[in-house]
Amino acid sequence: MNGSAITASGLRKAYKDKIVLDGIDLDVRTGTVFALLGPNGAGKTTTVNVLTTLLTPDAGTVVVAGHDVATETTAVRAAIGVTGQFAAVDDLLTGEENLLLMADLLHLPKAEGRGVARRLIDRFDLAEAAGEPAASYSGGMRRKLDLAMTLVGRPQVIFLDEPTTGLDPRSRRTMWEIIRELVADGTTVFLTTQYLEEADQLAGRIAVLDRGRLVAEGTSDELKRRVPGSHVRLRFTGRDELDAAARVLPGSTRDDEELTLRVPGDGGVRSLRTLLDRLDAHSVDVGELSVHTPDLDDVFLALTGDANKEIGAR
């Protein structure tokens, strides 16, 4: 997992007077999942198109899998795989025929192509449906087949554009497991998604793009810590204990119906110990304690500043 699979510096792109990318810098480490989040019109799709050689930036440099996107386009394309939001399978062909077609397009020898197709069919649990037309596949099966087709060429870097859109929860989690397996094998995954839980589950690092600029980047926990709102929730067994705790913790917010206090704090071990010590010093018993921190929804809305924007829209 040494080195960078994708680096971008100073990416800029404009259409007439509309700036779409305004100085984007990226560093995606090899063998990791990197998630790019952004509201409608943020520049997410333009970023992916630049990284995958489909679009030329007005300024900036990009290196993917060790190759310059501008001067080594063919090498970049040989090293990457791209799975779009909608499965790019041929409905008239069977699942196996779709895979063999991809092998032919990549000029694999016939025997090798058949071997690769069979291994992918087994890996993606498509054996029972391999001989059926893709038109008969469920949404989850089509997405699995689409990703399998992307893997025929054994790409070093895979770009997944909203890979689980429209899938039911079970199929979505199956795709998550497949993505984790790919990364465990050393593949680098660049992910865009409309599901914040998906980024939270899969990505080692997450970047938030808004109006063509990267407004934040870090691990999920790092991003959550940037947003205020962390607190400790204390529940008591009776009104007397609640009243006593409220006197000890004057900055807290009480809920008389639920017999709870909401105490601002980061939820760290040291601050929790201090909090409980204060209550113990006044002989106040706590029935339940829970720590609440902002989730990625809170992070996204805080960083993009618009609660009405659709997460992950194109």
How would you characterize the overall build of this protein?
The model is unreliable at 307-314 (pLDDT under 50). The protein folds into two domains: 4-89 and 137-225, P-loop containing nucleotide triphosphate hydrolases (Rossmann fold), CATH 3.40.50; 231-292, Alpha-Beta Plaits (2-Layer Sandwich), CATH 3.30.70. The chain has helices at residues 44-51, 73-79, 95-105, 110-123, 139-151, 169-184, 196-202, 220-225, 239-248, 269-281, 296-304; strands at 4-15, 18-29, 33-37, 59-64, 67-68, 80-83, 157-161, 188-192, 205-210, 213-218, 231-235, 253-255, 260-264, 288-292. It has a six-stranded mixed sheet, sandwiched between helices. Strands 2-1-4-5 form a four-stranded antiparallel sheet, covered by helices on one side. It has a four-stranded antiparallel sheet with strand order 12-13-11-14, with helices on one face. Helix 3 crosses helix 4 and helix 3 (95-105) runs parallel beside helix 5 (139-151). 36% of the residues lie in helices and 26% in strands. With 314 residues, the protein is of the alpha/beta class. The two termini are 31 Å apart.
